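User: Can you model how copper (II) ion sits in this protein?
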Amino acid sequence: MKVFSSMNGKFFFTSLLTLVFVNLQYSAQAQQNWNAAVGGQSKDMARQAAAFLPSEIWIHAGDSITWTFNSGDIHTVTFITTGQIYPFDDSQGCPPITPSGSPFDGSSCVSSAPLVLSQTYEVIFPKAGNYEIVCLVHGQMFGVIHVLDLALPLPYDQAFYDEQAKEQLNALLEDADLHQHHAEHQHSMGDMFSASVSSHTKSITAGVGEIAANAGGQQSFSLVRFINGTVAIHAGDTVEWTNLDPEIGHTMTFGTIPQDLIDPSCSPNCVVSTDPDGALHATITSTQQNVHSGLIAALLEDEPGFPQGPVAPPTRFRITFTTPGTYPYVCAFHDNLGMDGQVIVLP
Ligand SMILES: [Cu+2]
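Assistant: Here's the modeled complex, given as structure tokens:
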């Protein structure tokens, strides 16, 4: 008995050490911090990926994820609750904006502010469940976080997600050349709209994009540029801009950027009117005038469960220039990314 008791003492001590060790491991695992990315871009910022990278992550209850924002284009990290009305104003968060490190268990919304390059936002997930992550700026940008019970094994490690994030980003950004090619071969719809306009219309593609889906959600690629955005025309000619991006809206803004970026405006002594085909149209008579197209963005049509609305306006904007001169313009949302152009009006 004595021998056994002495052995038991040793065994007890070893077991205690093992227990302490296992507990340390257990708690370290229970509170693991994971890293993921939000958005990405090419060096010149022309190519933007609106994506959670990766869009699907498996973690344990109690773990947290820190998202690092990697683009000049703004995004949010937002978790809204089931049944909550999707917030409209992305600058207000849920509302409100919640601090980094906030817990989300599905009961009340958590959201970062719109963030850019190298800013970070952390969310802790105390409760098992599947939670959708959304960006309040980009409607087709979402993913899912699977929060598993501690007893369940996790399928992947951080290295896997790092690699997957890189692959998903590259897949999105590399689509750029294809789309630029496609965009350059777009015909002006103005040609079809009116024969009298056709020979005096220059067409500019104001952005082009594509939405991709995977098991965890959706991601999109955008070329945030006016493609061949500098054109030379003659007085009296019309320039027509068309947005071919299903996800990101743009503006054509000449002169002072107005407070209201959503609605079209023109001043002084000019108006933005609607052509018979629904496209907006302004006539500029002076380089001193301020012309703003308003937000030219693709709309989602025919959603099941919702009444049919009026026909969505085409994602197109026209300006007729009557006076020779140089007319620089920007996208009021993306001038920080270098989205600008110039209309040179010759006599
Ligand atoms: Cu833009």
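A couple of observations from the model: The two ends are 112 Å apart (CA to CA). Residues 324 and 347 are 5 Å apart (CA to CA).
User: Helpful, thanks.
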